[in-house]
Amino acid sequence: MAFKTKLKKGPVDTLTVEDLTKAIKNSIDKSGMETEAARAMAKHVLNFFGYSDRIIDNVLEPEDRDAFYMLEDSGLLTTEREETTLYDGREWRIHYWLFRKEKIRELVEAAEEKERIKAEEENLVYSEIPDDIWKRNEEE
Fold first, then answer.
1. How far apart (Å, rounded) are the C-alpha atoms in residues 34 and 32?
2. Per residue in 9-38, pLDDT tens?
3. Structural domains in the chain?
4. I need a labelling partner for 140 at 20 to 30 A (CA). Which of 11, 18, 66, 125 fits?
């Protein structure tokens, strides 16, 4: 997929589907959102952004906007607006959606840390077994 660039320390440039999936799982429903549901949402959102840092709100359908508001509530998206004066003197407001890339990176790192701790805990079972238990009994 075109989004396959890893998050790096420092300024975040491009998000991956996998990283956004982890951020969504780690922010919206910490008690067990299905990975496939989070991945579907990540792909859906990234399809709007493409390679841009922001998108205009007018391109969203009401259902999509609801998902964006949910991601905003969880800290993954934010909004900004731009005001301009039209030729006839009226004010016009343009609303945009932007990724909060630093927050996403924090959530991805937290998810990866949880995965690392879980893997270490699973390996502790073997570290508690004495070394001689792994040797075959030569008497047999």
1. 6
2. 444 567 889 999 999 988 876 666 888 999
3. 17-128 (1.10.10)
4. 125
